[in-house]
Amino acid sequence: MVEVDRKTFLASLPAGALAVMSHEDKAEALEHYMEDELDDRIAARRGEADGEAGSIITLDELEQEGPRAPRGTGRLFQPTEDEFAPMPDAPTLLDFFRLRFAPANHVLQSATHALTTGQPERTIFACLMHDVVLNLIKGDHGWWGAQLIEPYVDERISWGIRYHGPLRFYADDEFGYEYPEMYNRIFGHDYVPEPYIKQAYEFARGHRYYAEARLITVNDTYAFQDNMDVDIEVFTDIIGRQFKQPKEGLGYDNSPVAHMWRTMANPNRPL
Fold first, then answer.
1. 80-114 residue pLDDT tens
2. What is 40-80 written as a DSSP string?
């Protein structure tokens, strides 16, 4: 498991940010910090094995670059020294994983956890996709992530991704999900979710698809392991069965979400 030092995490936030952040903002920042830490550690380990430096920009390096982008900005719009690799004319989901979502360690580990614990295939795929939208935007990422894939998946998958965020803050003994102790250590024991988060949880708790979202949180919380490498190729067959790939390519099929895929494919487009 990736361990988070409270002082180090708080020091990673922009000056003065903590005073104006809601509890939800803090929880989102913590999760994103953990994902960045996971990517940094795996990149460093790979660099040591290859005799080369890792390619990921660290939090410290971002701080040295001067003013940072807003916290809700997706990874594709953060400062980088690398050029984006060109996308194929008709990009597939696998192309996005390789060229835009990489290294994607967190979602790959989440899906692996679901796979090894015998979860339904659609849950495995939901875990694989639940946080990829962070490359586009971070705030309310469950809602954005569901919208991103909705035209191409079983409605249970997109529904589960939409509500996995609010469910993180509520324990469920039936599913073996405990409120993360890390949240208590980082934010204190007085955390109260914002009203819209509570409302979303209560709606999801009474819905027939509740388990779809809850299983994502179960596999999400316990998937930060810096000693695990997973390749997207492991999930090729599952993607083929669970994702309706448009023949025109993602971003070019005139779907209601095509613009979101085009934005990720072309983050340098000015207009």
1. 888 899 999 999 999 999 999 988 888 999 999 99
2. HHHHHHHHHHHTS---SPPHHHHHHTSSPPPTTB-GGGS--
- Round to whole Å and give the CA distance between 246 and 130: 20
Q: Where are the domains of the chain?
A: 6-265
Closest to 171 in 3D by CA, of 156, 191, 157, 187:
191
* Distance between CA atoms of residues 79 and 228, nearest Å: 27
Structure tokens at 38: 């996971």
| String of DSSP letters for 79-116 | --SSPPPPPPSS--HHHHIIIIITT-HHHHHHHHHHHH
pTM, to two decimals: 0.75
Peptide bond preceding 88: is omega within 30 degrees of 0, i.e. cis? no
Both tokens of 222, joined, read 């316990």
What residues pair up with 73 in beta bridges, in sequence order?
Answer: 137
Look at residues 163, 176, 130, 166 and name the one whose alpha carbon lies nearest to residue 149: 130
pLDDT tens digit sequence for 105-139: 889 999 999 999 999 999 999 999 999 999 999 88
Peptide bond into 70 cis (omega under 30): no
